[in-house]
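Quick one before lunch.
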Amino acid sequence: MKGEWEKRWQAHQHVRAYFTCAPPPHKSHIDAHSDREKALSSIVVQMKTGKIGLDSYLHGIRPEEAPSDRCRGYLTDRETVCHVLLDCVACRAQRRRYWKDGILNGLREIFTDAGKTITAARLILSLALLNQYIRTNRRTLSAPEGEQDQQ
Ligand SMILES: [Zn+2]
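Model of the zinc ion complex:
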């Protein structure tokens, strides 16, 4: 009886549609996944140390590259991890997509919760403020086939 049910279930439209849309992962997907994990864990370290490609830090070490330490959104506040993750008005829409449970009370709340820490890293990555990853993405995504490794 269970076998019959399973046959009917597998023939069901939704199931077929699902398998059509979600093929098993290929090696390239796995590589992309692990690259992403590496990028995220390096961003976690950068967020915690504050040594991160945001202008508050870059301005201090390379003022010729980052002439201002102000947020690129509205130029009012310093572009810090705290500002971007919690306060920045320019990032508000994006932030709402990531902090679904609502208002956070501060960096301590983010960094004492592994899930929130990773969400924060994803959010920062998604905002494309970190130049090293903008370059990486550009290279990976927009270079012509076969030229990705030559740059
Ligand atoms: Zn801002």
